[in-house]
Amino acid sequence: MDNLTTTSKADVETYVNTSVGISNRTSPMRQSYLIPWNNPYNVITQQTSNNILFVLQCVIFPIITLFGSTGNIMSLVILIQKKLRNSTGVILIAITFADLCFLITNMTRKSSCLISMIDEYAEEIYTATIFGPLFFVITSFSRVSAWLVVLVSIERVIAVTFPLKIKVWVSKQRMVMAVIVIYILTFVFLSPIAFQYKVGSMFSQRTNTTSYFISTSEFYSSYEDILTVHNEILGTVLFRYLPVFLTMLFNLIIIINLQRRSLRRKAMTSSKTDNKSEDKITRMLLIISAVCLICTTPGSLLLLVSRFVDGFEFFGKYHNIFVVFSDLSLLLSMINSSVNFIIYMVCNKQFSEAYTTIFCRCRSLSTMRKHKPTMTDTSKGTTITTVGSTSTNEKIPSIVPDETVSCDEISKDHIKCSQTTEDS
């Protein structure tokens, strides 16, 4: 669903108006990505599309990647703490890791926008070379994250529906195995994506230069029918629509059970603290699932529309508007991978306390090192000198000239202090 970018648009437009270019555009998966950028059917112009993509890829994407990566790294540091490594924590660690890898690899591919500002020819080669492997990795981590949200929804359904069985049915070891299975099956199933593309080239006699672009590989040409079913049917249903449907279903069950539990609790004179704590965790995970649904549903709808609207695809006559919507749906996916840290901080007291303990204490210790007191022995007692941010232990001037405070220890619980004047 992500858009591809190219340069040498004049050569592209010349090529697609030939019989070879037209024949390439008639197959379900074209042999190259050479397309009619300025055909009259486009809803928006090529220049408008390029301007929107520039703002998204060169400005907004880097900002979100920096913010989201920082938040995910901090989340990993906190979640691996021993008191947070329970069955739910295992899934959250897996989701955070997948989100972090998605953001980094996606920005690595989208950095072609920044490279083009320096050298357009280098951007052509860079985009064509890295697209196949990175598209596979980006897609895999995105789909892993979607299925991990389904897993955490299942875990919460068991917690609110069978609270007495949760510790028996859902253990940390079983969650670790479930996470590993999701990672392995997703990457194995989507692995053919990495081999469907190669670097293509086209020599222009008019400019005496070679343009590089993304082309489908011989592997795809040999198994086109099988890979079409794999990509457009199995891959779409299993890793797009099914996770969205299951997440919505399980969240509905969770909401109904939470409402029933709330009504039962109001009817009772007292309630258990453990149940309240579980409800808070459930609500936090419910918010994570809801954000995931909101951010991933537009991409699924975009894919659905492209199946029914002729020409609404990257190689179609509505290319310019398609690539804009494609990057907007990618923007929502990046937001989904970036905001979980904020949800943890707002909704989970244990997480926020761990954050304060780890990061705020580090900052306070750094401040204390800059302003720690030093003890200097004197014949009368102990002289306390406060050292600021200076590199040497120089004496801080007193309000009263040539005076210090001398303290003689009387007992462990009492210190007698008296002012003395130093001899000149």
UniProtKB/TrEMBL annotation:
The chain crosses the membrane at residues 52-80, 87-105, 125-154, 175-195, 238-258, 285-309, 321-346. PROSITE patterns: G_PROTEIN_RECEP_F1_2. Its main location: membrane. This is G-protein coupled receptors family 1 profile domain-containing protein. It is found in: Membrane. InterPro entries: 7TM_GPCR_serpentine_rcpt_Srw, GPCR-Ligand_Int, GPCR_Rhodpsn, GPCR_Rhodpsn_7TM. PANTHER family: FMRFAMIDE RECEPTOR, FMRFAMIDE RECEPTOR-RELATED. Residues 71-344 form the G-protein coupled receptors family 1 profile domain. The keyword Transmembrane applies. GO terms for molecular function: G protein-coupled peptide receptor activity. GO terms for cellular component: membrane. It holds the Pfam family 7TM_GPCR_Srw. It comes from Mytilus edulis (Blue mussel). It comes from the Eukaryota. Keywords: Membrane, Transmembrane, Transmembrane helix. The keyword Membrane applies.
